[in-house]
Amino acid sequence: MRRILEEEIENSSGRGEWLEPEPAASFRTVDGEPIYWRDEHDVVHACEGADIHPGERVFWTLCGKDVPADGAFYAEDLVVTCPVCRGLLATLDGEEK
Ligand SMILES: [Zn+2]
C-alpha cells in the first residue's frame, strides 16, 4: 500500500483534491500532528489511520494492534515507547526523506 506523504495530506485539505484518490489510503498524521495510542500497559504506540468511508476513520498501530475508536490522539513530541513501533517509524521516516 502506498503511503501518503504529509505534504499531500495538507495539500488535499481545503482545496478538495486528492493527488491520488484512494479510499483506504493510510496516513500517519492529522493536521501535521502524529497519531498516537496509549495502550492498557501505558505503552505509547505510533498509529496509522485511514478514512474507509466519508466520516468513518479507523486507526491501528504500526505494530499491528487495532486502536479503539476513541483511543487515538494527536500530539507533538510524544515519545513512542513501543519498541516495534519505534523501529518501524525509523524505517518509514528514512524512506520518506
Ligand atoms: Zn506498537
Summarize this, please?
The chain is of the alpha+beta class and 97 residues long. It has helices at 6-12, 83-96, and strands at residues 26-27, 29-30, 33-38, 44-53, 56-61, 73-74. It contains two helices and six strands, in the order H-E-E-E-E-E-E-H.
Describe this structure in words.
- By secondary structure, the chain is of the alpha+beta class.
- The chain has one domain.
- Helix content is 22%, strand content 29%.
- It is built from two helices and six strands, in the order αββββββα.
- Strands 1, 2, 3, 4, 5 and 6 form a six-stranded antiparallel β-sheet that branches.
- The protein is globular and about 30 Å long.
- The mean pLDDT is 79.
- The structure holds zinc ion.
